[in-house]
Amino acid sequence: MKGAEYLKKIIQGDHKYRDLFENNRDGVYITTLDGTVVDVNNAIMKLTGYSRKEFFRKHSTEHYVNPADRIKFQNTIKKDGFVKDFLVALKTKSGKHLYCMLTSTGLRDDRNKIIGYHGIIHDVTEIKTKERIISENEKKFRDLFESSPDPIFVESLNGTVLDVNRAACRLHGVSRDKLTGRHFTALIPKGYRKLVKNNFDNFVSGKLNRLESYSIGKDNKIIPVELRVSNITYESKPAILIHVRDISERKKAEEKLKSSYEQLRQLAKHLQNAREEESSRIAKELHDELGQAVTVLKLELAFIGNKLSAGILNDDDICVLKEKTRSLMELVNGSIDSVRRISAHLHPVILDELGLIPAIEWYTGDFTKRTGIICTARLYSDGGAILNPDVSVAIFRIIQESLTNIIRHSSATAVRIFLNMKKTHLSVKISDNGKGFDINRLDEMRSNGITGMNERALSIGGVLIVSSKINKGTIISLSIPVP
Questions:
Q1: pTM score, whole prediction
Q2: What are the tens digits of pLDDT across the range 209-231?
Q3: Beta strand ranges found along 313-424 (DSSP E)
Q4: Are residues 260 and 385 both part of a single domain?
Q5: Is 163 helix (H, G, I), strand (E, B) or coil?
Q6: Which of 246, 280, 315 is a domain's end point?
Q7: 427, 478 in Cβ contact below 8 A?
Q8: Residue 373's closest CA among 419, 340, 404?
Q9: Which of 21, 83, 88, 352 would you call most buried, defined as having the most Cβ atoms within 10 angstroms of its Cβ?
Q10: Of 192, 227, 246, which one is at a domain's C-terminal end?
Q11: Cβ distance 434 to 401 under 8 Å?
Q12: At what angle do helices 248-285 and 448-459 cross, to 10 degrees?
């Protein structure tokens, strides 16, 4: 009897088998050794979308996405006598792939010879789809994890490092296996471990998701970092994901900004004190010079008035009055000179009327007269530059402040001023032979005079550079584009 006919006879003759065959929710099939379909249950029709007639027309290998899988299936049965949970992809009528687990054994004739196969097809398409989605998501996570420029750590709820990305390895200068398995506190400087450790429970509970701390980087370098924490599931267990960002540059910028604010505060205080000093100086000069002159003028005029009121003047009285008048004229002329001098120091008229170079020449000459410090000025102009009045005032005030600082701090005996004014560019260099200072301590010294000069230079688009050496004097260089 042929194999297919023998198999049909077995099926038709065993009613209990037939009931199990038809009522099974999973697909049940019987085929010959060569792959001819002998029988299938209704569940297979539902899975594949074929009618029974359509299904029987196809050879069993036509239902496999990869026909080679049937060969592997047959070889396993020949070897072991059965196949259990053999994963295959089958084709449905619509062309979709159906992932199934096959469990099958050989059907034997009365001589114990395998003449066919019967088995169960369990649809695992939904499970495989979920596994594929999970696998794809895991790949996406791993790609993002590894490509992040910031170090990322996955840690257990007790703080053990479970996984790290390449950036974390670069930060600490060690391989991945040197980081995983360690407790996170080993990566934090001792002085900051308590802060992070005390907040770890808040990370786990989600109450805290950001913290600034420090980390031990490559070559034991202490690096300021920002920690950003998320709660995740890692390998089916709760864990925390920590993004670590190196904020060294931000910290430097913050310190620089803080220093700048402090300098501006000191500058504002200095400017206020300078205004008070200037007001006090002007008041003193007005009192000492003009006040005394006006008082004398008042007394002398009263004397002349009394003489004139007497009505009769002899020759001696006339001579006295003439001398008084001459003296008063000298006093008035001296007062006028004082007013001009005070006005010139407040804002030199020569700067407005004749320009920057004549104003500097006048001021340096007056500086030498007042202080005894020899001030040499070498001032050049190609004649093509036309300075904005605000620019001229700023340059003049920078030179004025430089000379004031020399009087107060340098103990210099000589000063040189070099100015070169071209059509598109102006440069100024002021140098002295004073005691100088350590330029590395310039920020620490917080020289208000230098801060003020720098602010003036910036206000006109210029750059001011200070260089100095102890006992070698100081040089102030100013460079300004001429619009």
A1: 0.46
A2: 888 888 988 888 999 999 899 89
A3: 374-381, 414-421
A4: no
A5: strand
A6: 246
A7: yes
A8: 404
A9: 83
A10: 246
A11: no
A12: 100
